[in-house]
Every structure is written in structure tokens, then in C-alpha cells.
Amino acid sequence: MPSVSFPSARQASTVRVSRSRAILPEELSAIPWLDRLDGQERARVVDDLRVVSVEPGELVCRVGRPVTYWFGVIDGLLKMSNDTAQGMPITFTGLPPGGWFGEGTVLKREAYRYNIQALRKSLVTGITVDTFHWLLDRSIGFNRHVMMQLNERLGQFIAAREIDRLGSANARVARSLGSLFHPVLYPGVGSLLRITQQELGYLVGLSRQRVNEALQVLQQARLIGVEYGGLRVLDLDGLRRYLDAEPAPTVA
DNA sequence: GCATTAACACGTA
DNA sequence: TACGTGTTAATGC
Questions:
Q1: Which of these CATH numbers, 1.10.10.10, 1.25.40.10, 1.10.443.10, 1.10.760.10, describes A167-241?
Q2: Are A238 and A176 in contact (CB under 8 A)?
């Protein structure tokens, strides 16, 4: 056995609300939809927001648990995944700073339909289901934001299907990065995405070594810059469109 | 063939 | 010191 291994969702522990604290003023700027609210709405939200620090491997929410919060990432990196009947985990997307998730479940007041697990130590916040619905009932700005997010996410999942069908390992890495750099869904990610090659491996389901190889290829293609502990995007559209520039198999 | 794990050297925070 | 990167060797499907 390796000296350290990432815990599967099954064995991972779930974060408890009792560990949370109130949000700090300097953390409010990490919430992209706050400035769509008026003063009264904003006051209620700030009062309602809870913040919790999540250790690597811990679950923020678990499949089947009743919905409690609409969650957002202040700092760190999470992954959204599910387990197949055979027990193989399928990753749907990564969640970098600025990302919010669970609105579909919150809207219907149902149980979570996926696991959200921290890939590294992260700062996660959230508002209660009641406050979410209260905002939905009175704030047009909030409604526009949620609608925009649902629409962008739909586009992401359609793109993700293409990756699974057509993707080589290099292409899967490229397209995953294209999703993570999404400026609308994840405004907290600048042109520099803080992610290790190991974390990217967990996200796309490849070994660290294979991810490293893919990143070299993408750097050669001038799509990204590889830096210590992170990646810089140079050509976002190129990443999203990436298909292997490989073979040109000459016909004999 | 292609990806994986294990192991190592090296540089950085 | 602990962590992240880049690389090679051995192994598996």
C-alpha cells in the first residue's frame, strides 16, 4: 500500500455544521452573486452564511443525505462525483473558488444526488435552504444569477459527454481544464488556476504521471503554462476545442 | 500500445 | 522539512 492514499467517498467522513463559524467581511468578496442583492437581502444572507474549513478527503455532502445548504467555494478545490453500481467513482466536475453548487437539489428540497469531496484543504460556505428560497421569492437579481448558472452548467455537462465519448487522455485533461477556467461559473479563478498535478489526476481519473505528460503536450501547444502548484491559461477556446493533434497516419 | 504504480532526484514554499 | 514536479523502470490489461 502507498503511504498515503486518497480516501474513497465511501470511507470518507462528512463535514458537520457544528464545526462552522460566521463569515468574515473579507470573505464576502469571494461570493460572486452578493452584489446582485439589495441591502435587506444582503443583510439576511450575511447573517445566514456559515463557513467551514474542510480537510482533504472530507465530504461536504453525501449522496442520499437530505439537503441542508446551498454551498459555495471560498478557497480550495472540491470535486463532484458519484459511485456507479460497481463502486467505480465518476467525476462530474471540479469546483474551484467562486463555484456554487447544489441549487438543483435545493430547489426541489430533495436529497443530494452526488458526493462533494475536498481534494485539498478548502474553505466552504453556504446559505440555508430557507434563505435560498426566500431569495428566490423576492430577488430578481438572484433569480437571474441562478438561471445563468443552471444554463452554463448544462453546457458544461454536454461538453463533458463529448469528452467521455471522444477523449484521449490528453483531450480529457484539456477539456477538464477548460471547464475549471470557466469565467462565469468560477469567477474566483483568474488566469492562474491553483491546482497540483495530483489533484488534476483525481479529477480526471488519471495517474499523476499521465497528467504530467498531458500538461507538457498542452504547454507545447501554447494552450497553458505550467507553473509550480498551478496552471496558467493561455488559450481558453483552444483548450475547450482540443482534440489530439496526433497521428496523421500515413497510408501505406 | 497505453496507462499504472513505484521509486528517485531535484527544486520550491 | 514537506510538498510538488519531472523522469525512468517495471508491470498489467
A1: 1.10.10.10
A2: no
Nucleic acid strand B within 7 Å of A14 CB: no
Q: Which residues, 6+ apart, have CB-to-CB distance to A18 below 8 Å?
A: none
Cα separation, A65 vs A153, in Å, equals 22
How far apart, in whole angstroms, are the C-alpha atoms of residue A191 and residue A44? 33
Residue A192 Cβ under 7 A from any strand B atom: no
Parse chain A into domains and list their residue ranges: 17-159, 167-241
Decide: CB of A209 under 7 A of nucleic strand C: yes
Name the band, by pLDDT with cuts 50, 70 and 90, for residue A175.
Answer: very high
CATH of domain A17-159: 2.60.120.10
* Angle, CA of A122, A78 and A200, to the nearest 5°: 110
User: Per residue in A224-241, pLDDT tens?
Assistant: 999 999 999 999 999 999
H or E stretch covering A75: strand A69-75
Cβ-count burial A15-35 (b if 16+ within 10 Å, e if not): beeeebeebeeeebebbbbbe
d(CA A104, CA A108): 7
Q: Which amino acid is at A212?
A: N
Other Cβ atoms less than 10 A from the Cβ of A89: the count is: 16
pTM of the full predicted structure? Answer: 0.87
Q: Is the CB of A216 under 7 A from strand B?
A: no
